[in-house]
Amino acid sequence: MTKFTASYVKNYLLSYADEKGQKFGCRIIPGCSNILGVRTPIMRSLAKEIAQDDYLAYLQDAQDEYYEETMVQGMVISYLKTDIEEVLHHTAAFIPKINNWAVNDSFTMGFNFKKKDLPAVWNFVQSYLVSRKEYEARFAIVVLLAHFVNEEYIDRILAALDSVTQKDYYANMAVAWALCECYLKFPVKTLAYMQNSNFTSEVFNKAIQKICESKRVSFEDKTALRCLKR
Asked: Looking at the whole model, is its pTM more than 0.90?
């Protein structure tokens, strides 16, 4: 029997609650008021331990009273060393709990998918890409930008981003972020696609802004890119 029960995890997180961290978290995560202020490395360390223990018992018992409890659940799933079907099963169960950008991005960026599993992951996110729910769309987009910006998938990513219909803020910002990541690795192809795409002016301009904020882009290229803003 695992020691990592819901009550154990809650008490563990409460023991690391920090007022400064709580205030900072509430400031940068709009609408999230159930924050304890636990530092991310502490949550990651706990999640890795749980992922190597009886994670099934934990996930069945896990609670969401505090933001950090939800964070730990997502981290546990992203750290699982089991077959991709089981990982995606737990992922699908967790996605409805995502209600802010921090939980979403920590969860999606934490995965370390094997190359052989990428086709299954790609197929899995397709329904979320066309979701009308803001954080379902953001989930799919951040998975793509974190794990699929490579030679094999670049054309499919750009087309997928152009097909996103969810227009709420955090979905839009994820598309802009993804375009930036694509540009940094495939600048010519990405820019050509952007200029002949259906992206809104908000997404297009935000992508240009993010690209220009990167230290990996030359001054000359930044100057030319800024001239393209709509």
From this structure: yes
